């Protein structure tokens, strides 16, 4: 693995071993195959077909093979069920089906745990600002009305972070951007404890908000659709 990684270099799928799998060598996930069979059987029942369609290529218990015709049939069936048929819906259905076929493996569970730190930073620091206001007022002397501008500084950083990292993630990639947001939140979160003045603490909270404001949007991008609710 190279020591220095160019964040602006466009990656190719062949740069990552084991990522690119030919369609003929890929396998269906058990839950995806079972869901498609259920939809297909329901469609046959509702249409009252006289001739039952043979399904020699139906997946075997556990996994089945993938074909272009089979994927097209599944996507067409999904579009009929949801009642939407636009190019965007077709692309979304194909991507979601690919993510479901990948399944919820060790990488996805590790990603789920990592994304939990993003949600933790977001919720913890929004509560932490309110909890530190009385201490800031007692330590540095601003009035109770004046010290509330610390929250304003935090939300200014949140707005900047949400605007910046959404664009930056498309340029440098979501993994690097998400790790950078957690790094920024960690560094400035620790620095707040040693703030020299109320103005300095407010500035550190604003810098903290730049990191916290960008990490939540990345948390559910790579989770399987079936388990996205746990993110």
Could you characterize what this model shows?
By secondary structure, this protein is an all-alpha fold. 63% of the residues lie in helices and 0% in strands. The protein contains seven helices and no strands. α5 (149-172) packs antiparallel against α6 (174-192) and α5 packs parallel to α7. The model is unreliable at 50-64 and 222-231 (pLDDT under 50).
Q: Describe the global form.
A: elongated
Biggest beta sheet attributes: none
Order of helices and strands: HHHHHHH
Instruction: Quote the average pLDDT.
Output: 75
Helix-strand category: mainly alpha
As a whole number of angstroms, the C-alpha radius of gyration is 24 Å
Topology of helices and strands:
Blueprint: H1 30-47, H2 68-82, H3 87-102, H4 106-140, H5 149-172, H6 174-192, H7 198-215
Name the features.
single chain; 231 residues; mainly alpha; 7 helices
Give a quick summary of the entry.
The chain has 231 residues and is an all-alpha fold. It is 63% helix and 0% strand. It has helices spanning 30-47, 68-82, 87-102, 106-140, 149-172, 174-192, 198-215.
């Amino acid at each position: 693995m190279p020591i220095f990684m160019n964040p602006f270099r466009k990656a190719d799928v062949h740069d990552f071993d084991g990522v690119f799998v030919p369609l003929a060598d890929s396998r269906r996930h058990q839950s995806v195959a079972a869901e498609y069979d259920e939809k297909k059987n329901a469609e046959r029942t509702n249409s009252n077909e006289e001739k039952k369609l043979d399904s020699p290529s139906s997946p075997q218990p556990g996994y089945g093979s993938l074909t272009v015709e089979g994927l097209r049939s599944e996507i067409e069936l999904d579009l009929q069920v949801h009642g939407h048929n636009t190019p965007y819906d077709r692309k979304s259905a194909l991507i979601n089906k690919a993510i479901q076929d990948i399944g919820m493996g060790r990488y996805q569970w590790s990603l789920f745990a990592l994304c939990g730190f993003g949600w933790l930073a977001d919720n913890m620091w929004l509560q932490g600002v309110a909890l530190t206001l009385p201490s800031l007022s007692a330590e540095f002397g601003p009035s109770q009305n004046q010290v509330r501008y610390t929250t304003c500084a935090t939300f200014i950083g949140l707005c900047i972070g949400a605007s910046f990292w959404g664009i930056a993630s498309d340029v440098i990639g979501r993994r690097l951007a998400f790790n950078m947001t957690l790094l920024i939140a960690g560094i400035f979160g620790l620095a707040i404890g040693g703030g020299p003045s109320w103005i300095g603490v407010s500035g550190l909270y604003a810098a903290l908000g730049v990191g916290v404001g960008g990490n939540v949007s990345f948390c559910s991008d790579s989770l399987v659709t079936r388990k996205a609710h746990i993110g």
